[in-house]
Structure formats: structure tokens, C-alpha cells
Amino acid sequence: MVVSGSNLMEYPVSVAVYKKPSSVQIMDKTEVLQKDKATTVGTCVAADANPAATITWKKNGKLLVADGKAVVINPSMKVDPATGLSTTSSTLQYAASKEDAVSVFACVSSHTLSSQETELEPFPVHYPSEKVSLQSMSKGPIVEGDNVTLKCQADGNPPPSSFYFHIKGQKMLVENSDTYTLSAISREAGGEYKCSLVDNEKMEASQSIVVSYMDLSLTPTGKIVKAVGDTLSVTMEKSASGDAKVSWTKNGKALKEPLFSRLSYADAGLYVCELSMTGLTRHQSFELIVEGKPVISSLTKHRADDANSKVLTCEAEGVPEPNFQWSVNSTDEESSYTNGKATHKISVIPRVNLTVTCSVSNKLGEDVMTINVSSVFKEEKKEEGSPEESEDQAKLIVGVLAGLLIAAALLGLIYWLYMKNARQGSWKTGEEVGTSEESKKLEENNHTV
Predict the structure, then answer these.
(1) By CB neighbour count within 10 A (0-12 exposed, 13-18 middle, 19+ buried), where does 154 fall?
(2) What is the pLDDT of residues 77-103, one digit of tens each?
(3) Engineering a disulfide at 327: which of 357, 386, 413, 419 sits with its beta carbon 3.0 to 4.6 angstroms away?
């Protein structure tokens, strides 16, 4: 078969060449989002595709739909005349909320041949301060003399870096800090304090500061030296911002408020007055010393356990501590001193009966007392009876002798009276009783009796 030009027929054929985007990128990304204000998040570009790619936006995996207010999407497309390839762009503007600080935005490129998704890292959300607060950094009650730090805070992001502090009618600008310190606060500094924003002074906060204080005055204080028997007046005055409790101690032990009408050695000690309330304590103290010359209260004796010596005990009261002196030599000595009371013991071996003297003295005076001490050797020779029994026996003997003498005198008197009456009777009867010489002898015999 012969084909000629007249036999040829032409039919047009359309050829479509598909090409997926060479790249999908997000350009002009923002650094922050603004609360309630449309901010350009970025521009998503799908380049060199045929047919043109379709671009959509997602937030946290959900499709964003433009509403002209919170979400604004501006798409565009350009065709390269030389290649016929299309480049699709989409710009997202978004008005964020505080919660969007953790939101993840993504650009999705859809094409006949493929789909591609590109995510963005979460953006910080900036918003102006809506609330200001002022607080004291002190953990407990504020005490007079403390350093008090005030902290002003606002809820904006980023937070304000400068504030106005209103201190007792004065406006103090504090830059690059949110704190202000009141040094060594006084009770007069209590009251209301304020802080405000530098760019909006109407937005402010206030804080009431209560300063706790307490004053304690005690008379007397320090070391007080008084004589035994004297009086001592103690005066305590207090002033406090609240209810304060008063307590007393003597040498660390609790007691009631001391009253001294007549001082004794037992009153001596360290007295501490404490005034306290929540978070605050004050102390004042005085040390009372009661002095007096020594006075011996007793001087006693007793036989030692070994029966070879006697123990003499001398007790005295006095401050300062008295010195003891004895009039005899001793073998063992023992002493003690507590609350003005002194005790001194010695052991002696008396070979004869002694009168022993105990002498006590300090810078204020002295005192002396004596005691009779019998020999231990004489006591050993006695087989029975005590010294008291011997004394009773001696008294009995003396009584017996006195009775005998009185009886003899009475007998002599009776005999003399009898003889006298006998002579007178014989003279009256005319009887002769004998010669004169015999009468004289008889009278001499009567006198002798």
C-alpha cells in the first residue's frame, strides 16, 4: 500500500507532566506571638510543583480555618514562564491566647504525588500585665529592727523589669529589679505600702506592714550587793504592740515575781525577767548577792565510829564564805558551803578534858563559840554508867552526907535539952545531984556531943 500525503491525517495529543514540590519551607517565622493581636506566624512555600500544591495550616493537629479575626490565611501562587512550574505560598496570621504558649503550628503541603508537613516549635506568647501584687518577703512577724524586703510582681509576659514603690508618700523608681528593702524598720514605719507599673501607674497593689515591738525595763540590773536583812525594790516596766507574757526565773528555775521585804542568804541568785510574744523576746536580769557577817548557829560533838576520836561540827551562816579556825589541832577536816550556810567538821583525840573554841570570820565580822570536850582515855576507863549517871551518883552521895550531919545535930540538941530539964527538976526537990565538979564534967560532955 502506498501512503501519500493525501492519505495522512493529524490528531492533537495533550501530555500532562506531574512534578511534586521540590521543597516545602516556612519562611519569615515570628519569634513571639501576641495575646489577642494578629501576628504573622510565618509563610509556607511549596516550590516548583505541577500541578500547584495546596497549602493548609494546623494547630495541635487540627485544621485552622480562616475567620478573618483570630485566624487569617493569605494564599498566593506564581507560575514560572520558562518551566511552567508553580510555587504556592500561604501566610498565617494568628491572634494567640495565653494557652498558646505550648501550641504547635504546622504547614501541610498537599500534592497529587505526595503530601508533606512541616512543624514549628512552640512560640512564647507575650501579653500585658493584668494584675499587680505586692508582698513582704519576711516569713514570720516583722520585728522592729528587721530588714524588710518588699517584692512587686505583675502577671505580664515578659514580666516588667521596673516598678514604682510608694514609700510613705515618696515614689521610688526601681529599675531592673522587682524588690525594695526597708532597712532596720522602726515601729513608726508600719502602715500601707504600694507599688505600680512604670508604664501604667494606675495598675498598682498595696500591702499593709505591721511592725511588732516590745520594750522591757528592769530596775535594778547587773550585780546588786545587799546586806542580810535589807529590803530590795524590783520594778519592771513593759510596752508591746500586742499581748506580751512576763515570766521570771531564778538560777534557771521558774518562780513568781520576786518581792524582797527582808533579804536572807537564800534570796541570793541570778534573776531573769523575760517578756515574750509571737516572734519576739526580751530579757533583763540582775544578780543579787546577800552579804553578812558570819554567825555560828551550832557547835556539836560526837564520838567517832572508831571510838578513838571525837568529831566536832561547827555550823555558821555568812557571806562571803567564812573562814573557820579551831583552838585545837585536828586530824581530819571536812567543809561545805551552800546558799550562805557553811559547815566545818574536824576530828580530835583529846587526852585530857578540853574547852574547844570555833571561830568564824569574813570581811564583815566574826563570831566565836566554845564547847567542852572530855578525854577519850578517861571515858575508856569507866566500866559502866555514862557521864550523866556519874553526876547523879555524886549528887546522891552529897545528899546522904548532908542528911547524916543534920541528923547528928538534931540528936545533940535533943540530948542537951533533956539534961537541962533534968537539972532543973533536981534543984526544985532539994535533992543533991553531986558535987560542983561533977556538974562541970557533965556540961563539958554535953558540949562535946
Answers:
(1) buried
(2) 999 999 999 999 999 999 999 999 999
(3) 357
